[in-house]
Amino acid sequence: MRKGRFQKAVADVAQRYSESVSFDYRLCRHDIAGSIAHVAALAKAGIVSAAEQKKIETGLREIEQEIESGKFHWDEGLEDAHMNIESALTKKIGEAGAKLHTARSRNDQVALDLRLYVKEQIERASALLKKLQTAFLDLAEEHVDLVMPGYTHLQRAQPILFAHYLLGQIEAFARDAERLRDCLQRTDVLPLGSGALAGSTIVLDRELIARELGFARISQNSLDAVSDRDFVCEFLFCLAMIGMHLSRLSEDLIIWSTSEFGFVEFSEGFSTGSSLMPQKKNPDMAELTRGRTGRLYGNLMSILTTLKGLPSSYNRDLQEDKEALFDSVDTISAALELFPAMLPQLKVNRERMEAAANDPNLLATDLAEYLVKKGVPFREAHEIVGALVANAVAQGTKLNAIALADLKKLSPLFDVDVVDVFDVRRSLVARRAIGAPSPENVKAQIKAWHERIGRGD
Q: Which residues, other chains included, contact 42 with Cβ-Cβ below 8 Å and sequence gap of 6+?
C-alpha cells in the first residue's frame, strides 16, 4: 500500500499501534466470500478474464482452507486481515492476484465484511435464544401447577404460578429475537462498490454482487455506506438488552437460591465453593452473567462515543468498532449457551414456594375486590382492607384468622363466603383476563409458545 507515495517504511511503534490483524482475522471467511463475489463482477466487467477469475477464486479457497487448518501465517506488518489475504493470494497465483482490488477500497471492503459478520451473528444469537426459550418452556411444563408468591419491591405481592414467571422470561427473550430480526433489515445492505467514498469509474454490477452474497438491498450513497456503523450500534444494543434480561433473571435466581428464600438450588455442576468456607455453594454462573452485562453496556457506549465526533466518510477511528463487537458477541454467546444447560438442572423447592404463596396477605387485594363485587368503591374497599391488615399485624394474627364479627365492624357486606377469598387456587382460577396467571391461561400459553417456537416466530 505504501509503495509509490511513501519513501520510508512505517515506524515499528506506529505499525504495532495501528495493526488490527490480531483481532480482525475473525472476518477472514467473510472477506474471502466478498472477494469471490467481487471478482465475479470484475469478470463480468471485463477487468479479469474467466481464467483469471477461476485462478483467483481457487487461490482464495486454498487460503481459506489454510486459515481453517491453522497453517496460514498472519503478518502484523500487513496491518489487517484484508491485506494479509490479498498478499498471500498474489504470492500464490501471481499477477492475477494484484487485479483483485480493482474498483474496491478497504473502506467498502471492511464495511462489507462487518455486515456479513453481523448478519451471521444475528442468525446465531436468534438460534441460541430459541434454545433458551425452549428450556424455559420445558421447565414451565414440568411445574405447570406450582404456586409461588409474585413480588413487587422485593415484597410479597400476589400469588402467581411459577410457570407464569417462566413464561414471562420467554416473552422478554421473544422481544430480543424481534429486535434482532428488525436489526437484520438494516444490516442486510450491500456496501461493496462504494469504493473509498465515491465509487469508481469502473462500474461493476452491484446487483450481481448482492445476489452472490445474499444481500436484500444495495446501499444508495457511497459516502454514507463506507462510514455507516449504525447496524453495529443497533446490534450491540440488541445484545445489551439480551444481557439485561439474563442479568435480571440471574438476580431472581440468586435471591431465590439463598437460605432465606430457598425456592431454588443450583446444581453442583453450575455452582462453586469457597476457598475458606467449606459449607458454601455459590451461584457464580448467574453472578458472572449479571456482572458481564456491564461489559455489554460498555461496548455499546464505546462505539457510540467513537462515532459521535467523526466527520463524514471513512476515518481510521472506525477500526475501534471490531473489538467491542467481537467481545459482545463472545460474551452473549457464552451466556446463551450456559443457561439452556443450567436451567434443566435447577432444583425447584415446591414446598418452600407453596408455603410462601399461602401467606394470607397475598390475597389482600382479592379481599378488597370481594367488597367491590358487592358494590363498595375500590378506594373505600382498599382502605377497609388496609385497616384489617394493620389490625392483624398489631394483634400478631393472620388476615384470614380475623373473626367474621370483627370484619363486619368495618363493613356489613362481609359474609360467611369471605372464607373463599383465602383459597389461593380459587384466586388463581379467577385470574382469567388475557395475560393473567390463571392455570387455564398458563396452559394455553405453553401450547401457544410450543407452536410459535416450532414455527420459528
A: 48, 53, 99, 100, 102, 103, 204
What does the pLDDT look like over 300-347, one tens digit per residue?
A: 999 999 999 999 999 999 999 999 999 999 999 999 999 999 999 999
DSSP 57-96: HHHHHHHHHHHHHT-PPP-GGG-SHHHHHHHHHHHHHTHH
Q: How far is CA 446 from the centre of its chain?
A: 22
The three-class DSSP label of residue 123 is helix
Sign of CA dihedral 142, 144, 145, 148: positive
Select which of 274, 313, 333, 427 is catalytic.
274
Please check the confidence at residue 409 and state whether its pLDDT lies above 80.
yes
CATH superfamily of 356-455: Fumarase/aspartase (C-terminal domain) (1.10.40.30)
Provide the 8-state DSSP code for 26.
G
274 is annotated as an active-site residue: yes
CA dihedral 387, 392, 393, 399 (to 10 degrees): -100
What fold does the segment set 17-102 form as a domain? Answer: Fumarase C; Chain B, domain 1 (1.10.275)
Choose among 328, 324, 331, 330: nearest CA to 304. 324
pTM above 0.90, yes or no: yes
pLDDT tens for 78-94 read 999 999 999 999 999 99
Residue 164 among the catalytic residues: no
From the candidates 69, 73, 153, 275, which is the catalytic residue?
A: 153
Strands 155-161 vs 147-152: parallel, antiparallel or unpaired: antiparallel
